[in-house]
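Q: Protein A?
A:
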Amino acid sequence: MALTHDDDFLYLQIADRFTSQIHQQLLKTGEKLPSVRALSQEQGISISTAYKAYVQLEIKGLIEARPKSGYYVRYTPARSFDPAKTEKQAKETDKLSLDEMIAMVYRHFSSDSIIKLSRAAPALSLLPQAKLNKSMMEAIRQSANSCINYEEVQGNENLRKHIARLSFNWGGNILPDDVVTTQGCMEALVFCLKAVTKPGDLVAIESPTYFGIFTTVQSLGLCILEIPTDPIDGPDLNSLERSITEQKIKACLFVPTFSNPLGYCMTNEKKKKLVELLAKHEVPLIEDDIYGEMYFGKTRPRTCKSYDKQGLVLLCSSISKSLAPGYRVGWCIPGKFKAQFINLKLMHTLSSATPTQAAIGHFFETGRYDLHMRKLRKALHTQSLRYTQAVVEYFPDDIKVSRPQGGYVLWIELNKKIDAFKLYERAIVYSISISPGQIFSTDSRFTNFIRISFGLPYNDEIDKSLKTLGRLISEF
């Protein structure tokens, strides 16, 4: 029986739907498709129409037939190279806004097929998953209500006690009552900004800085002043002082210890000078200390908070980069702004999640945190050296690379002719994700810089990726 026009249209329509699912990786390489008979029954079509749909997909190279087994997906979109498509994308992304660039870089975070050199976080293999599970179960068992009740507004008392004890390492003299817990560090930063500013106020930040900082500041209706920042010494305090006298800066938000993306750590002398400068003009300092525990030296760097005598420094941190990103356990030591901070927490979240706070408090109490951090610091230090060695070996001779003494990232300056975002587009074709310099400032500067994270343990796959990246840079 000859196929009618409707039958012909139907098999192409079904083939197109499969094609779309394969390109979107809803159907992944190696997955088995329904049999011809099953497809016929599911879609209410004839067996010949179902067969023709699969033949069409075979012709395109999207699936393959295996004898006595059935049809399987064979196409891997993440590793394909379509020059025409890449050229078209390059033309389109010339017009992308900063927000669109950021969204494009971070849309691949959930894909297992991408080598994520763009993510400034530890590999899950470096985190103590089994011991965290034990602490969670033990914390729930010890709780009178199995952690299903609201936590007190300031946060789990045991957790705050151990955060206060940790402050001894960075030169602090903190009591549990000085600490307020949050859902991660970003929430702490938001509450701090709301506590010390109002919409329209001017906030000074580093340049370059983590895009999450300036997008958060802007989302609150605040204006931004970018302070020039050196990859070794940190923010230019002379420039900051001039700006304070010439403009009405209401607050500063800095990452003084192992900044992202530069990786610098301000000296103790400079941290003290910064605190004294801001205290002189009564300008609050919001100190993002999320990377402070990831140090490679013998001792933990001091914080700006340790030099604070007037309560003007609001220190924010979390365990997201050191222990359990998904637990969303953060905290703030808000100084003289504690009442405003707690009021904001009451209005926005009421209290933090009870089970995760109790689990982390228990993890600290058992001494597991100190042991874990010693292992993590050692691993990160080794990885930073391996990554740096590979960058120097595989990248062109005219590049410059930072030498951080902690944290997760390398900041790399490329030849001025290279557009970092176009490099990102070429690298993603090879399933390699990097962070282009444009996303670290409000006006998309740093066009010939990239940020690479060394959070993933170094292996053959990482080595191959860095070698490929070096080749792509050379091709520019």
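Q: Protein B?
A:
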Amino acid sequence: MDEDIRRVTGTILRAPFTRRTVRELLYCGLGGLAGAIGFWITIVMLALGLTISASVLGTVIGLLLLTLALRVSRRLGGLHRRLARWLLRYQVEAPPKFQPGTGILGRVDKRLRDRAAWRGISYSLIKLPVAFVQVYTITAAVIGLIDITYPIDWMLFWHNPAGPAHPMVAFNPFSFGGNFDIYGWPGTFLAVVLGAASVLAATWLARAINAGDRRLIRALLGPSSMAERVSELERTRSLAVEDSAAALRRVERDLHDGAQMRLAALAMNLGMAREKLDTDDDATVRELIDAAHRNAVDALADLRDLARGIHPPALDNGLPSALATLAASSAIPASVTADIGTRPAPAIETIAYFCAAELIANATKHSYANQIKVNIYTERSGVLRLEVSDDGIGGATASRGSGLTGLAQRVSTVDGHLEVSSPPGGPTTVTVKLPLKA
């Protein structure tokens, strides 16, 4: 019993000195600030949209404001999910992407029916009291740290043999007791006790309020209903079918335009050479045989490239080795950093390899970069994370019709995600997140 008490007491007292506490308090500050700002943005836009749309003349403008508010709520939801992932190490899957309708009325109707956006608005409204507690928590921690420094502050700035001109004020972040004055150096130790208690209380209050915030994020900012999940699966299934059909058409085209034509030329040259064997024209026979040999070599090269496009042989030795081989053949100097624990499924390795190959090729063609960095590792949540960055001119977008759009569709077939960060002037970083198993 005594051992359990000592263990629990040690855990409570050591909590302020852990890295987790630093992340929790940072999340309280950043998440609370984002929540408060998001609440007021949501309230203002909703109020304006509903008020204006209540009038006959302002219906169109009001509906546009409502659709804008719903779009902003999705962006705010993404911000909160990223903060939770970055600081709390809490991964929440994003809801299905918004699928716009056709025409203006179709787009407005789809946006107004966007359940994920309405749940994001619900989160912004509920977030205000949570944000208040989070801001209060970080304030209490800061005040506590200031109180702990009072003995040093007294010795450096308040030490006066004739006595201080006015007392120091020890701040109390809690409502009970209020602030108190300090008239001598021994009194600063009472501020130290109060500060240590404030930091300890803020540590556990941050963990408690962030635990509640994580539940809200999971419930309101992630995939909610089975209908949304089924809709996303239908979309990814359609993309998988289209990707497979495109791959088959590509294989058929490569065989028809490459190896098939070369083998046909090989057969024709060999037939002509056989006809020339009965004559004394040895030079012509030799030329035909040389042409047939070249066609055979070219056909083998085409077949080898085609097989490599279906499944690169370098993947047999693992994804890190395959990416290192890919980087070695890059026209721009490329480096690979790999930290893969559990080996992904073969299908995931293939998708990651072709994503890296496409991203390196894009950087070579468009970025004017001097260096490419490939970083791939596995996360604790069972996610394979591939990051390809370059120091080029930036400006890459995953807009409809670009190569990045095709990559995003390919990774979405296995519930993966693609994120692009490419401000004008660079640098460019493309992140691909894939599950370890399809």
